[in-house]
Amino acid sequence: MPRLLALLLLLLSALLLPLFHSSTGVINVYYNGTVTVYLYNVSSINLIGTNVTCIKVEGAKYVVQGNTLIIQGKSATITYRSALPKGVIETEQPENLTVNVLIPAGSSITYLYPQPSSFTVVGGLYNITFENTSKVTVLYTYTQTNLHTSSFSPAFFILAIVLSDSSLLFFFLYYIRRNKRTKEEGEKEEEIQIGLDERDKVVLDAIKKSGGTSTLSELVKQTNLPKTTVYRRLKRLVAMGYVEEVREKGKVRYVLKKDYVEK
């Protein structure tokens, strides 16, 4: 019942948004690949994940071109299913929207971009909300034992709602990341790292050997590192300015910046 009530409130807020804004949109992305979208005066969105199926659009006609769904109407409610990389939820949209990322409560969050506007617990799920943004990335790890081994109860995350000062929320999330470790294919890895470590350098060297540009799958083969490890390193390298993420025809390539090619 609490989960149903929370979902009804999310739907109600999405339906009321058009009354106050000329152009609005809410995207709810669930860890299992379910995506629900509520739009008003938004002409297109990028589909999230791969192998998108069961697309249903109410209130408007639509056309799918590549990875883009084009809306032909003022308002629309969209649902679909897709395949998401394990522990990765990422979306980049043509316009600034509100994005709610819902993952299992007890998950260990290793990376968030941008800083979320709220962090709540909804029916056994963490609901991480990002407002007025076009790009969102959430990296997390979840196992069935997380709820039992985690030293942080949902009450801590509820407390984050009360911390309206964004700096306090930042330090709260930082404290969690600093004190938790994730286990990735039998290897423990620090979640907070400063500067380049050996794995960062391995990924950088692999991109250099590929002529300064490579894909995630190519780098996994070259480095023999787990896919999630390579993905996280690439995100760190992008954030640090060593690598640029380039999208071409629905595919993502990672390009070494010219400043670092000769190093």
Question: What would your notes on this structure say?
Answer:
- The chain is 30% helix and 42% strand.
- The chain folds into 2 domains: 21-183, Sandwich (Immunoglobulin-like); 193-261, Winged helix-like DNA-binding domain superfamily/Winged helix DNA-binding domain (Arc Repressor Mutant, subunit A).
- The chain is an alpha+beta fold and 263 residues long.
- The chain has helices spanning 2-16, 146-149, 154-162, 166-179, 198-209, 216-223, 227-240, 258-261; strands at residues 24-30, 34-40, 44-46, 50-58, 61-65, 68-72, 75-83, 88-104, 108-113, 118-122, 125-141, 182-184, 187-189, 213-214, 243-248, 251-256.
Backbone structural class: alpha+beta
- Report the C-alpha radius of gyration, rounded: 19 Å
What is the tally of beta strands?
A: 16
Strand content range:
35-45%
Short description:
30% of the residues lie in helices and 42% in strands.
